[in-house]
Amino acid sequence: MFERVAERAPSPPPRPSDTTDPARVFAALDADPTNINVTQESLPRALQLIRLLAAEASKRGHRVGVNTKTKHPRAYLQIGQARRAVTLTEEYDRSSTCPPPRNCGIYVVARG
């Protein structure tokens, strides 16, 4: 009379070379921030920007992940099927009145 309902198989674990679990993303970037091209003094701010980007992406149904298959972990933003690398670099303006790092900015660049 009653049919047995098949249980769902658990979803496969994320590939070890690619993760979007926020804790693992930030752990990988904290451990090896080589691909975040900023000074040591600006690194906490850069990591915070990636955390804020991940939170905003999640609110909009997108995600920030990290590819650990590369020599150094590289963050990416995924929107649907499109995946773009997240690159943070620090640029300095040459100024004789204001020495770095006061005249620097951190820029987020998405490349397709």
What does this structure look like?
With 112 residues, this protein is α+β, with helices and mostly antiparallel strands. It has one domain (18-111). It has 2 helices and 5 strands. It has helices at 22-31, 43-59; strands at 18-19, 63-67, 74-79, 82-92, 104-111. It has a 5-stranded antiparallel beta sheet with strand order 1-2-3-4-5. The longest helix is centred in the middle third of the chain and has 17 residues, at 43-59. The N and C termini lie far apart (56 Å). It comes from Dactylosporangium fulvum.
Write out key terms for the chains shown.
Resolvase/invertase-type recombinase catalytic domain-containing protein; globular; alpha+beta; 112 residues
Please summarize what this structure is.
The chain has one domain (18-111).
Termini separation comes to 56 Å
Assign the structural class, choosing from mainly alpha, mainly beta, alpha/beta, alpha+beta, or little secondary structure. alpha+beta
Order of helices and strands: EHHEEEE
- Main sheet overview: 5 strands, antiparallel
Q: Helicity level, as a percent range?
A: 10-25%
Strand order of the largest sheet: 1-2-3-4-5
Overall, the morphology is: globular
- What ranges have pLDDT less than 50 throughout 5 or more consecutive residues? 8-17
Radius of gyration over C-alpha positions, nearest whole angstrom:
19 Å
Number of strands: 5
How many helices in DSSP terms? 2
The number of domains = 1
Strand content: 25-35%
Average pLDDT works out at 76
